[in-house]
Amino acid sequence: xxxxxKYASILCMLLLAACAATGPISTPAPFTPRSVTxxxxxxxxxxxxxxxxxxxxxxxxxxAQQSLSELTAQIDQAIKQIQPxxxxxxxxxxxxxxxxxxxxxxxxxxxxxxxxxxPVKDLKDNNELGTWIINTMxxxxxxxxxxxxxxxxxxxxxxxxxxxxxxxxxVQIGSYESLPANINANEIIPMLFPNP
Length: 196
Hints:
5 strands
């Protein structure tokens, strides 16, 4: 403790000596503010050079189908005029854009697909099945383009039924349209399905 007082005394003496050596303390002149003009350069901003992009919520695309009730009613009525026990329906095939938020998914159609169930006498009779394909495709070809969803041609799936069995055939609309215009009904099945 004595040592601490001793050091403090020496430190005070050194400070006093230093102050005495500098001479008399002068009082500074009172501060008088001056007006100073500062120019800040302005940089022109061209609003068109800054791209403003809206924030769009990202989504995940999921394969999806959507029933087409009005179109289904049309083709079902048309096929029943040929065969009352037959039926048909249409669906749009495409993608749902599914959002992470609670926002509802949006559907984008890629094509319209048709499904027909038709009773037949014999599943091996190419003439009977070919006639049904021709008559059904006439129904689809008569539809207005505005009723077809999606940019690409879809398919027609036929379910031919007998009392004991059934046979499913899927015909791409583009493949059918590429067949010769005057093709016979009994040539349709071998042409569309060369390897049964």
